[in-house]
Write a structure and sequence with these properties.
Layout (H helix, E strand, L loop, with lengths): L4 E4 L3 E4 L3 E2 L15 H13 L4 E3 L8 H10 L7 E6 L1 E5 L2 E4 L3 H15 L4 E6 L8 H13 L3 E7 L3 H8 L6 E3 L10 H10 L2 E2 L14 H10 L3 H12 L12 H9 L7 H8 L3
Parallel strand pairs: 3-4, 4-5, 5-8, 8-9, 9-10, 10-11
Antiparallel strand pairs: 1-2, 6-7
Length: 279
């Protein structure tokens, strides 16, 4: 059996297949996507289905996704882990500006606490390292917030293995979040480092931004298992490494059910060999 649970930082258990909220926002991750009640229904159904890791960010919307999480799920059930991100400022659709000054990171974190109606954020991820601010200052700001009890664990988004090594010299890192899927494995060295140190790896674009739902190899293997091609791509991640914790996002209840059913797909050695060869 493939383990369903991963313990963040060795002590915060989450189901490895979580839910990401980016798709609850409009084109370019800007503004809402449709009516709020639809997003609320998807979030509530995810938790009903046993999801215990919700991945969001202050700049999805901006603010929209975090507010929807609170509207749908507050008061939060025991065991639900909310992960959010800060360190990027939005000025329009597809407009992203890295901001890692300590005072700005503190302001972003405190705004997320208010929107999410939390006293402590379980996992606060630095959305991007700011090249114009020393890493020690950026992580120092998050460490200070952790000492104050405003965040519990620190994560990083879009880093190299070398940057993770450098960050680990400065503070404890519970997670990384990089692009990784069947056909994009540029972050393989980072994955190996996470495995060596028990760090969660939350792969973004786990379905290749939708491309893997139409992949021929995935489709062939899916037909043999009686499932959808996207479920094969997600199942591959769960089989590939025990630290991989995908959080696929969707605004569709039907697609949510399909994604979450991926956890029940069992891939054999031949399946894995064919899928591994896609890289």
């Amino acid at each position: 059996m493939i383990p369903e649970i991963f313990e963040l930082a060795g002590r915060l258990p989450v189901r490895r297949l979580g839910y990401g909220t980016a798709q609850l926002t409009g084109p370019g991750y800007w503004g809402p996507r449709g009516e709020a009640r639809n997003a609320v229904a998807v979030l509530r159904r995810a938790v009903e289905r046993g999801v215990t890791l919700i991945d969001t960010a202050d700049n999805y919307g901006p603010s929209v996704a975090e507010e929807l999480v609170a509207e749908a799920l507050y008061p939060y059930p025991a065991g639900l882990v909310i992960a959010t991100k800060g360190g990027v400022v939005r000025t329009g659709p597809d407009a992203w500006h890295i901001e890692g000054r300590p005072e700005r990171l503190r302001a972003m974190c405190e705004a997320s606490l208010r929107r999410l109606r939390l006293d402590t954020i379980d996992l606060y991820q630095l959305h991007r390292l700011d090249p114009d601010v020393p890493m020690a200052e950026q992580l120092g700001a998050l460490d200070e917030l952790r000492r104050e009890g405003k965040i519990r664990h620190i994560g990083l988004d879009s880093v190299t293995a070398e940057q993770l090594d450098a960050a680990r010299e400065l503070t404890d890192i519970a997670s990384v979040q990089n692009r990784y899927n069947l056909t994009d494995r540029a972050s393989e060295p980072l994955l190996k480092l996470c495995e060596a140190h028990g760090i969660a790896f939350l792969p973004w674009f786990p379905l290749g931004n939708g491309s893997l739902t139409t992949d021929r190899v995935c489709a062939d293997i899916a037909a043999a298992h009686g499932v959808a091609p996207g479920q094969i791509a997600l199942a591959w991640l769960l089989h590939r490494s025990l630290v991989l914790c995908p959080t696929p996002g969707t605004g569709s209840l039907a697609h949510l059910e399909e994604n979450l059913d991926s956890a029940a797909v069992r891939l054999g050695e031949e399946d894995m060999s064919r899928l591994d060869a896609l890289s």
